[in-house]
């Protein structure tokens, strides 16, 4: 695979061909498709670790599923580790899932208009979820009180020491 | 005369080839007579040494001359008779009837994803256009024209040996679900034939071919389904070749 870009030959890409056989999509010289492909393969294994650790800590450790309540989530988001963890999980899963579904839309839609409509809906949904999710992770108030000023049931223990 | 030359009962002959009845269910498309494609079914007597191609010949030569299909060498060399046999892409000349489940009809359809013109005949032009686009010929610097044969070591030849075996039958490309979606994907066969030159150390057009395949419709559309490897009548490790081209593009850009 010796490399030399400027070799002058009569090849299809040199323009020496009946235009009716030229591929429809203009060839992009960017590496966008390559980066998408790479991103799927890098984010996949990272998600594998993030998701299964997340499931294990939430569902197996401590009281297991019986300990799942407002307090557990509130307690986790008080810790920067779980904030970062959930943030990375949210972003990676959403970008990974959006690229994946966009691929499926490209596969199954026949008309350009259907394709654009589905993709706009997909991107809007993804952006909404990523923005809302990020906002919640960073602005979450763990020690919420009811109208009477009392801490909510199941509030994380550190709220009671204030 | 007590001895006659009358034929004896076949099955009692020493070394006689077994015979059986086969039901052939063939997808027909005859645009001059019917707008829609339909199925035709024939039950015929065939022998243990016969292939699907022989059954099609028997139908065409003895029963229905309108049955249309391509074949040339009849020995797995020319790549003309790829078709969907019992739902998988095979060369009709390489499938022995006795290896199929003959208790059910044997279905024969044209390969998928290319426009059907008549019966098994599809328009191969989009397939060959992708092949042309990857420049399937040796590209060497003209200023260094050799005065003798371009030598190559056995190891360097081995590097791309597998992909030299392609006969351009289109069994792989027309078995690929990504190709079926819109027919725009370059397809496994084009990538296999690009691989054959990209990894040839006498060739100097590797970068141009990688550029061609680093396209929206290039190697990145491959989803590693392995249908192509399963379909290839030459046993080429098609999916592996595609993965190697992906790696070469990555290595060049990162
Ligand atoms: C658990 C760890 C995960 C791994 C190891 C993983 C791995 C992968 C890989 C390698 C691909 C590319 C397939 C291809 O191009 O052939 C892919 C596609 C995809 N992934 Fe994931 N992924 C994971 C989690 C997720 C999650 C959480 C979502 C949803 C948010 C998701 C949604 C998708 C979708 C929709 C596709 C496209 C499917 C297709 O191309 O047919 N994946 N995944
Ligand atoms: S790679 Fe195999 S299946 Fe594909 S065109 Fe070549 S010989 Fe046929
Ligand atoms: S007829 Fe030539 S490959 Fe089958």
From TrEMBL, chain A:
Mind telling me which Gene3D superfamilies this protein's record contains?
Fumarate reductase/succinate dehydrogenase, transmembrane subunit
- The keyword Iron appears for this protein: yes
Main site of residence?
membrane
Metal-binding as a keyword of this entry, yes or no, is: yes
GO cellular component terms listed in the entry, alphabetical order: membrane
Which InterPro entries does the record match to this protein? SQR/QFR_C/D, SuccDH_FuR_B_TM-su
Membrane spanning stretches:
38-61, 81-105, 117-140
For this protein, what is any one GO molecular function term? metal ion binding
What organism does the UniProt record list as the source?
Enteractinococcus coprophilus
List the subcellular locations.
Answer: Membrane
Q: What is this protein called?
A: Succinate dehydrogenase / fumarate reductase membrane anchor subunit
Alphabetical UniProt keywords: Heme, Iron, Membrane, Metal-binding, Transmembrane, Transmembrane helix
From TrEMBL, chain B:
GO molecular function terms attached to this record: 2 iron, 2 sulfur cluster binding; 3 iron, 4 sulfur cluster binding; 4 iron, 4 sulfur cluster binding; electron transfer activity; metal ion binding; succinate dehydrogenase (quinone) activity
* One Pfam match: Fer4_8
Q: Which residues form the 4Fe-4S ferredoxin-type domain?
A: 156-178
Keywords for this entry? 2Fe-2S, 3Fe-4S, 4Fe-4S, Iron, Iron-sulfur, Metal-binding, Oxidoreductase, Tricarboxylic acid cycle
Q: Locate the coiled-coil region(s) and give their ranges.
A: none
InterPro entries recorded = 2Fe-2S_ferredoxin-like_sf, 4Fe4S_Fe-S-bd, 4Fe4S_Fe_S_CS, Beta-grasp_dom_sf, Helical_ferredxn, SDH/FRD_Iron-Sulfur, Succ_DH/fum_Rdtase_Fe-S, Succ_DH/fum_Rdtase_N
- The name of this protein is succinate dehydrogenase
Species assigned in the record:
Enteractinococcus coprophilus
């Amino acid at each position: 695979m010796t490399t030399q870009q400027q070799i002058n030959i009569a090849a299809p890409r040199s323009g020496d061909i009946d235009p009716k056989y030229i591929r429809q999509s203009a060839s992009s010289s960017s590496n966008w498709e390559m980066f998408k492909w790479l991103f799927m393969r890098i984010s996949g294994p990272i998600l594998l670790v993030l998701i299964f650790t997340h499931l294990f800590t939430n569902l197996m450790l401590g009281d297991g599923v019986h300990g799942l309540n407002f307090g557990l989530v509130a307690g986790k988001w008080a810790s920067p580790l779980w904030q970062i963890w959930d943030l990375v999980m949210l972003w990676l899963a959403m970008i990974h899932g959006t690229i994946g579904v966009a691929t499926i839309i490209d596969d199954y839609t026949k008309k350009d208009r259907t394709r654009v409509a589905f993709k706009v809906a997909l991107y809007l949904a993804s952006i909404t979820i990523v923005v809302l999710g990020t906002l919640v992770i960073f602005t979450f108030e763990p020690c919420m009180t009811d109208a009477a000023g009392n801490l909510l049931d199941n509030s994380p223990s550190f709220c009671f020491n204030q | 005369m007590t001895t006659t030359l009358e034929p004896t009962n076949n099955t009692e002959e020493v070394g006689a080839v077994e015979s059986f009845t086969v039901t052939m269910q063939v997808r027909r498309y005859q645009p001059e007579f019917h707008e829609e494609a339909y199925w035709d079914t024939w039950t015929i007597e065939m022998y243990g040494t016969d292939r699907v191609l022989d059954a099609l010949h028997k139908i065409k030569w003895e029963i229905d001359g309108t049955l249309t299909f391509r074949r040339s060498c009849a020995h797995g060399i020319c790549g003309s008779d790829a078709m969907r046999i019992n739902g998988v892409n095979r060369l009709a000349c390489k499938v022995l009837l006795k290896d199929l489940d003959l208790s059910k009809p044997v279905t024969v359809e044209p390969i998928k994803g290319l426009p059907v013109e008549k019966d098994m005949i599809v328009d191969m032009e989009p397939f060959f256009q992708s092949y042309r686009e990857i420049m399937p010929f040796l590209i060497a610097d003209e200023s260094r024209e050799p005065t003798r044969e371009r030598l190559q070591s056995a190891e360097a030849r081995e590097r791309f040996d597998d992909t030299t075996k392609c006969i351009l039958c289109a069994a792989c490309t027309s078995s690929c679900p990504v190709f079926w979606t819109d027919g725009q994907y370059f397809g496994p066969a084009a990538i296999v034939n690009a691989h054959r030159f990209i990894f040839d150390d006498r060739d100097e057009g590797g970068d141009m071919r990688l550029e061609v395949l680093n396209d929206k419709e290039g190697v990145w559309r491959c989803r590693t389904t392995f249908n192509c490897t399963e379909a290839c009548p030459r046993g080429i490790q098609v999916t592996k070749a595609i993965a190697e081209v992906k790696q070469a593009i990555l290595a060049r850009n990162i």
